[in-house]
Amino acid sequence: MTAGGAIVTVGSVAYKKGIAPMTVYSSAKAAVRYSIKGWAAELIGKGIRVTNFGPGVADTPILDSQHKTKEESNAMRDMYIKMTPIGRLGRAEEMASAIFYLASDESSFTTGIDLVADGGLSEF
Questions:
Q1: How far, in Å, CA of 54 to CA of 115, rounded?
Q2: How far apart are CA 5 and CA 79, in angstroms?
Q3: Which residues pair with 115 in a beta bridge?
Q4: CA 79, 119, 11 angle in degrees (round to 5)?
Q5: What is residue 45's predicted lDDT score, i.e. its pLDDT?
Q6: Is residue 15 annotated as a catalytic residue, yes or no?
Q7: Across the chain, which distance is largest between two alpha carbons, in Å?
Q8: CATH second-level architecture of 5-117?
Q9: I need a labelling partner for 108 at 20 to 30 A (CA). Which of 22, 24, 43, 55 fits?
């Protein structure tokens, strides 16, 4: 009898591009991303799917909390928007929808993959 279920790790698109001065962060996210391949292979016989979600920069309160002043925060937002080919930051709802998809039965034929939602940041 198989157990079934889904494991969704949440990484970052930082593993796809080396981001100075965040080498350790990028490396840690790469480890998460590539660990799912092994976990997916190990758990498939138990009916457990393993996937990774790679978010880009999202417009959430944590984005502003990283800066001391509103001016710094606005400058960082503008920089991220310019870096993102789609021309805006992601929304929390978009990130949640992607994770929900990976965890749901809608993705029952999906395992060992990385779903990236980053507005093209890591691709162009």
A1: 6
A2: 39
A3: 53
A4: 90
A5: 95
A6: no
A7: 58
A8: 3-Layer(aba) Sandwich (3.40)
A9: 55
- CA distance to 39, 52, 70, 80, per residue, from 32 (Å): 10, 8, 33, 23
Return d(Cα 17, Cα 117) in angstroms, integer. Answer: 15
- pLDDT beyond 70 at 1: no
Strand 5-10 and strand 114-117: pairing?
A: unpaired
Q: pLDDT at residue 90 above 70?
A: yes
From first CA to last CA, the distance across the chain in angstroms is 45
- Encoding tokens for residue 23? 């080498």
* Sequence ranges of the domains in the chain: 5-117
Marked catalytic residue, from 25, 34, 80, 101: 25
What confidence tens digit (pLDDT) does each residue in 9-19 have? Answer: 998 888 877 67
The whole-model pTM stands at 0.86
* Interatomic CA distance for residues 116 and 122, integer angstroms: 9
